[in-house]
Structures are given as C-alpha cells and as structure tokens.
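sorry for the late reply, my laptop died twice this morning and i had to redo everyting from scratch. anyway the thing you sent over, i finally got around to it. pasting the sequence first so we're on the same page, its 165 residues, then the predicted structure underneath. double check i copied it right bc i was rushing
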Amino acid sequence: MGYVHSIRQKVGHDLVMLQGAAAFAFDQEGRVLLARHSETGMWSAVEGAIEPGERPSDAALREFWEETGSVVQIVRLLGVFGGPEFQFKYANGDLVAYTSIAFEVSLVQGVPTPDGTEVTRLEWFSVAEVPQLPMRADNRIVVECAIASRNAPGFQDPVWRPLGP
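ok and here's the structure:
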C-alpha cells in the first residue's frame, strides 16, 4: 500500500496536501515536451507526487523515467508553485492541494515514449502553441511560468499582506 493510499484510508476524500515534482525538457528549438494524461486527456509537464523521504529532484527524474522511459538530468530549478488553483477534486472524489516544484531537465538517454498507462501522448510544443492546449488551471500556471523562467527561477506573485494599518 502506497503513502497516499494509507492516508486516504484514514481521511477518506477529505483534503490532503501533497507535493509534486515536474520535469520540463526543452529541445534545441526551444520547444517544451508535454504529456497528455490518460485520466483527464489534458496536457501537463511530466510530473508526479514526491514520495516520503524522496528528494524533489529525484522525484522529477523518477517520474520522467516512469512516464517516458528516458533518463534525464536536472539542469536547474524553474520554480515553486501552489495556491488556490492547485486545489482540485479527482474523479473518484479525493480532494487534494498540491505544491509543485518544477525543474528543467536535459535528455541523457532514450527517446521519450508514453508509458501507455499514465501518459498516452508526448509531444514537443512551441511557446506559441501552449496557450491553446487543454490544461487544468494548476498545470497551465506551472507550464507557462516554467517556460517564462528558463533564465531565472520563477514563482507566482505573492498576494498575502499583513492585516491592519
């Protein structure tokens, strides 16, 4: 039994906060590799949950391997993301809120091929093509910020302000 499954045994469908790692590969033309997920049919980075005791960078490498069959290495941190757009309900009723850590990666070995289970398609997209792709709001934030922040780590602008005068 996995970590999330064991939590769900205790809390049912109630809100669970999770951490995820996203891996962004770019080709020589500056196109980004995105994955079409089997459950939703929507596009996102190659991504997944960070397991207990796992480093975020290791989770990004592992998820890329599991979903594409390719080996990558970390190039740099692209950003850390979260907030109300990152809370959603899965089809089975499970409520989650993610904090997503995005990394740029470079291919070391293999040709990215969809695993056929979690990912049904992998495609390289230009920056101009990304806005037209069907994505959940949280994935759109991460993908667009990651593309924009290739030269420096990115994050969402804070909205918190102290109360009072």
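The first helix runs from residue 3 to 11.
thats about all i looked at so far, will dig more tmrw
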